[in-house]
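Batch manifest, entry 17 of 40.
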Amino acid sequence: MPLGHPLAARQSVAFQDLDGLSLLAHRNALAWMELCRRKLPHSNLLAQDSLESLHQLIDSSTLPAFGSVRALERERPRENRVAIPLQDAEARATYYLACLQGEQKRYSGLFRRVRGKFG
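Output type: structure tokens
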């Protein structure tokens, strides 16, 4: 959220607080885009195909933008912006990594790396 935005001082926001705003988002986050279309029917979702374009717009505009906790951990802090969590339960996702029981040995290294990074 841009620092000068009326919602920037909030500890958290809800989808209803954002409905009606123009917002930047990444088009390839398909489940997220579908959720935003349902929860933000009066918003203009300015979806970008490339992360590079999205980051350029975030850096050069005063529009609010969506980001994930993981993305915020990997990216450099953005000047003149503050990250505000969405309080709606629908804004949280749990991901599972699964394989066939007979393939566990084959993918054991991948499972260890994922547990080490995200577990």
